[in-house]
Specification:
The chain is an all-alpha fold and 428 residues long. Helix content is 65%, strand content 0%.
Length: 428
């Protein structure tokens, strides 16, 4: 091979090793991505003893030949002298020719003699990165930065390798979870946190592992840490809200879902569900039993109105009709107030309010219309509450339109809460 053909052939090998090219590039210069993977820094950079001016000039000229792709002349120039930086130059030639084992062995020998040699540290870290030894590469770039704190390339490469390593460990942990290896996934997540403590990825995986093991409290704690590190992530916020619901932290779930719903209305339904659970959690005992009942009674409706709507509790009322079936009940005060405000009626024949009779779905539209007027206090009320029907209430998200004649406690609670809120806020 003549002197011009040899560098071109070697350059083709270098391109294949470093950048996956299908054929050798044209021209004498190394491809940009190849020069990026192997920096080929001047070999005397960071070498302690230093070189004389003449040796330094020869060394830098040889390095320029290498970077230009003239590997034969570069190797000849590096072999001409014996100081350690020239040996590192020969390592560069080995790397360019894909002789990785020889390069690694010599790098280990050189770094054993001079552990803080910047150029040698970088070459070994670059080799580790090319071979996929991501953890070793990250450690190598960090060792570089301990020697040269402000080295821009070292900092950038450390960040890139760390990011790749995080993705690799995350993928491994996800596969472990798919295979029901919860302990393996947890170990991988912890190792990821060791690598990148400020990345939410490790905490997300710990939450996944805890949830897979049925440990929802632990999953919530890890998800909260992930959300704190990336508050802009809708995925993290949604996951935390879901776990907050599972661990009965309904107030926090409501806050998270409301924030998500402001950005994406698809979360509005989940916000409603969290709001209902939060209300139920904080209701007085009688109202909570009413809200959890499978079939809402008229007396329970009175308890819910009393507990959920301040305007019902605070309204000035006169002397209502007496209902004989409410006299000796513990929820008498709520029933009497509901009668006085027109939510319940007393039979003129029997003088009974029907406290234990079920509330029919068809009863709710006029009741909710009355409630809207009470909450509005003279202000306009939303159109669907002005002359409501079951269908109109369903369309504005207050009541579900089903074939069931009665309503559950949760349905009644949600309808009362939604009516009062829509009146206060001016609509759905």
């Amino acid at each position: 091979m003549n002197s011009r053909a040899a560098p071109a052939a070697a350059l083709g090998v270098l391109c294949w090793v470093l950048s996956g090219c299908a054929s050798a590039p044209r021209g004498p210069e190394l491809p940009a991505d190849a020069a990026e993977r192997f920096a080929f820094r001047n070999p005397d950079d960071g070498w302690g003893p230093g070189l004389g001016p003449r040796d330094q000039r020869r060394l830098h000229e040889a390095a320029e030949l290498l970077r230009a792709g003239d590997l034969e002349r570069a190797e000849e120039a590096f072999r001409a002298r014996t100081p350690a930086p020239y040996r590192l130059g020969l390592v560069y030639v080995d790397l360019a020719r894909d002789r990785r084992e020889e390069a690694r062995a010599e790098l280990e020998r050189l770094l054993k003699v001079s552990p803080k040699w910047l150029a040698a540290l970088e070459a070994r870290a670059d080799l580790d990165a090319v071979e996929g030894r991501l953890r070793e590469a990250m450690d190598g770039y960090q060792a570089m930065l301990r020697v040269a704190r402000d080295d821009a390339r070292g900092a950038r490469r450390a960040g890139e390798v760390r990011e790749a390593l995080v993705k690799e460990r995350a993928a491994q942990a996800a596969r472990a979870l798919e295979q029901k290896d919860v302990d393996g996934a947890r170990r991988l997540a912890l190792s990821l946190l060791e690598i990148a403590p400020q990345s939410p990825a490790g905490f997300r995986l710990l939450a996944d592992a805890a949830e897979s093991a049925g440990k929802h409290e632990d999953a919530y704690a890890w998800a909260a840490k992930a959300h704190a590190l990336d508050t802009a992530s809708a995925e993290d916020a949604s996951r935390l809200a879901q776990l907050a619901m599972q661990t009965r932290r309904y107030g926090e779930a409501l806050s998270l879902y409301e924030d998500l719903a402001r950005r994406d209305r698809a979360y509005a339904g989940r916000a409603e569900a969290a709001r209902l659970e939060f209300k139920l959690q904080n209701l007085p005992e009688a109202a909570r039993r009413a809200a959890l009942s499978a079939r809402l009674t008229r007396a329970q409706l009175a308890s819910l109105l009393w507990a959920l709507v301040p305007q019902v509790r605070d309204a000035v009322v006169g002397n209502p009709e007496v209902a004989v079936d409410a006299l000796d009940r513990s929820d008498r005060a709520a029933i009497v107030r509901a009668i006085a405000l027109g939510f319940l009626t007393v039979s003129k024949e029997t003088h009974r309010v029907g406290a234990d009779a079920p509330v029919l779905r068809s009863d709710l539209p006029p009741l909710l219309n009355r409630l809207a007027g009470l909450v509005a206090r003279g202000r306009p009320i939303p159109e669907c509450l002005a002359d409501p029907s079951v269908r109109a209430l369903a369309e504005c998200g207050i009541l579900s339109d089903t074939n069931t004649r009665t309503v559950s406690g949760r349905e009644g609670t949600a309808a009362i809460e939604a009516t009062a809120r829509q009146v206060r806020e001016g609509g759905p």
